[in-house]
Amino acid sequence: MDLPETFVEGFHDENEVRKMKYYTFGSTGLKVSQLSLGTGAFSYFYGDVDEEECKKTVHEAIRRGINYIDTGPWYGHGKSEEILGKCLEGIPRKAYYVATKVGRYEKDPLLMFDFSATRSKRSIEETLRRLKLDHVDVLQVHDIEFAPSIDTILNETLPALQDIVKEGRAKYIGITGYPVTTLWECIERSHVPINMILSYCRLTMIDNTLNTFIPKLQAKNVGIVNAAAHSMGLLSNFGPPEWHPAGQEIKTACTEARQYCKDKGVELGKLALYYSLQQEGPATVLVGMKNRQLLDDNLQVFNDGLNPKEQAVYNHVLKIFEKLTVRHWENVEIENYRKIMSGEAGGGGFFK
User: Fold this and answer.
1) What are phi and psi of 69, to 5 degrees?
2) N or C of the chain: less Cβ packing under 10 Å?
């Protein structure tokens, strides 16, 4: 296998890099690692953060061949970007690609989203200061389904990102969101070239909706990031956070699968990652990792797959999920958000 262009002799562990798979990332031409590093957990959203451990994790991940890192100002109001900036100090800039976002910022729902051109341009300035970089490789519009309308994204946000690219502060443009139909509509209607999408929780053991769109995305040469293989905690032995928007049928099935895995001494999260790594189409599977133990566990799944015992449990868990009649929670978050914005009661289930 040829070494990727991100390989830096003297920094990388060449043997580990040669184990990693790299795929062309749509029209960007970048070759990104099949396993990539999400840093949303570099903030209080997912519990306490040990900055020194984050630093060691990032360093080790890149050294072992992971070259795509995702962050955003939404995660801890910039805390993820700030910590990541510290983590990247001393690492050759050639060794990694950084993707960040605009559009989603504050925890308060009334201040959470701002897709205006002005805010987007200010956001990238703040991001680059926090990351201590002069440019990012990918700049994404975060959760486009929450915009007042898709026209706002098309006529204001994306043109602003195009300006940012022309200025050299980003190289490529992307969009993220939960409803894949909305991502596809944006791509079809946009006059600004969209190089990639980040789709989360839509190519997992419980929901493979993204598969329907992969041929169309590939035909337009759009790079695909498959994020949240663990469905934001549903597919793990630890379980989902209280705010998870999934309905009761999904949660009940995941509880059954979780208990079965615990009884068999197998981590459900390992099976979930294995499933997503087997799916063709996405250039990379994005997984949040804030410590070296998680990194080691995920790389072990990547390198070694499942042992016979785990494979048997995996097959049983898939049968549990075959019974599902509902496999997603589309519109739940949007409806709760709209209620809050209109002054109605409600609003749980869209914090991620």
Assistant:
1) -125, 130
2) N
